[in-house]
Design brief:
homodimer; mainly alpha; Arc Repressor Mutant, subunit A; 0% strand
C-alpha cells in the first residue's frame, strides 16, 4: 500500500469510527454526513467523497461493528475444541466484551434493533441479516456441541440460541442502563445454570 | 365530575396517548409539544396549557406506560395465591402482553433504557426508578415463592429476577425486530426450564 492509499484508508477508518460514535450515542438514524464531518473536521463533501452517502455510512457502521464483534468474540474461540468448550469461550468473551466495551459504547446490534424495530428499508434489512447470521453461527456451535455429545441429542438449538441472546441482552441492559456491577457475575451464573439444565434434562 | 372537567380529562388523556405514540415510534426524546400538537390537532400552546412542558409530557408517558403495564400484568395476578402460582401468572401475562401489544407498539421501558442509557437527567432517573420498582415487585413475588416453599430456601432472588427480565427482553426483540412467531412458545419453554432448574438445584 503506497503512502497515498494508506492515508486514504486511515481517513476512511476515521470517518467510519466517527459514524460509529454517533450511532452509539444517538442511534443509527442520527448518522448524517454533517454530524460525521463535524467530528472528523472535514467538510460534508469531503466525507461523501471518501465514504459515500449517508446510507453507505450507516451500512458501513453496521458491518464494521459486526467485524469487530466477531474478531473479539467468535474468531478467538475457534481455537477451542468444537462443542461446549468453544461455546463456553464464546459466551465468556461475549460477557467480557459487554462488561468492558458495550457497557460504555452501547451495542449497535441491540440498540439498533430497538431503534429500527418499527421501520422498514435497507438499513433494517442489513441489521436483520447481520443478527440472524450471528445467531446462525451460534446455532452451528450448539449443533457441534450436540454432535460431540456435550449436550443431549434432543437439545433444541434455536431455543438455546435465543436464550443465550436474551441473556446477553439482559446483561447489556443491566450494566449500561442500571449500571449494576453485579450483573456480569449474575450472567456467568445464569450461563452455568442454563447449560446444566440442558445436560440434566 | 362535571362535563367541563370530564372534557378536560379526555383531552389530557388524548394528549398523553399521542405522546405515547410518538415515543413508541421514535423514542422518548422525540416527544415535543409540536409533534404531539400535530397528532391531536391542537396548537402547541393548547398542548402546553393542558399537559405542561415537554419534560412533563415525557414523564407522563413513562408513568402512564407503567400504570397500564401494571394494570394488565401485575394487578390481575394478585388474585392468584402468593408464591409460584402468582409468579407464573405474572410471567404468563407478561409474555401475552409482549406478544399481543408490545410486539406492535414497542416497550417504553426497554426501548427507553436503550435510548437513554448514556444520558443523564430527570428522564433517565424516572425511567430507572420505574424499572427498579417493577423489578422490586418481582423480587417480592419471588421471595413469597421461597417463603411458601415453592422455590428452595437458597434461591437467589436478584438472580432470578434479572433472568426473568432478560427473558422478556429477548422475547420483545424476537417478536418485534426478528418478527419470529415461534418466540412466545420459546419463552414459555424457557420459563418452565428456568423454574425447574431452581427447583431441582
Amino acid at each position: 500500500m503506497d503512502a497515498k492509499t494508506q492515508k486514504a484508508e486511515l481517513t476512511r477508518a476515521a470517518i467510519i469510527g466517527a459514524a460509529l460514535d454517533v450511532a452509539a450515542a444517538d442511534g443509527l438514524e442520527s448518522i448524517t454526513l454533517q454530524a460525521v464531518a463535524d467530528r472528523v473536521g472535514l467538510s460534508k463533501s469531503g466525507v461523501f467523497s471518501r465514504a459515500g452517502s449517508r446510507e453507505a455510512l450507516q451500512k458501513a457502521v453496521i458491518e464494521e461493528y459486526g467485524r469487530s464483534f466477531l474478531a473479539q468474540v467468535f474468531v478467538p474461540a475457534m481455537q477451542q475444541p468444537k462443542g461446549l468448550p468453544r461455546l463456553n469461550e464464546i459466551v465468556r468473551r461475549w460477557i467480557a466484551r459487554t462488561r468492558d466495551v458495550e457497557a460504555f459504547t452501547g451495542c449497535i446490534y441491540i440498540a439498533g434493533a430497538f431503534e429500527l424495530d418499527d421501520r422498514s428499508g435497507e438499513l433494517r434489512d442489513l441489521l436483520h441479516t447481520e443478527i440472524t447470521r450471528w445467531r446462525a453461527a451460534l446455532r452451528r456451535t450448539v449443533l457441534q456441541a450436540i454432535e460431540a455429545g456435550h449436550l443431549p441429542a434432543g437439545t433444541p438449538a434455536d431455543q438455546l440460541v435465543a436464550e443465550i441472546y436474551s441473556m446477553l441482552m439482559g446483561l447489556l441492559h443491566d450494566v449500561r442502563f442500571l449500571r449494576d456491577p453485579q450483573a456480569p457475575h449474575r450472567t456467568e451464573a445464569s450461563w452455568a445454570r442454563l447449560v446444566k439444565s440442558y445436560q440434566t434434562a
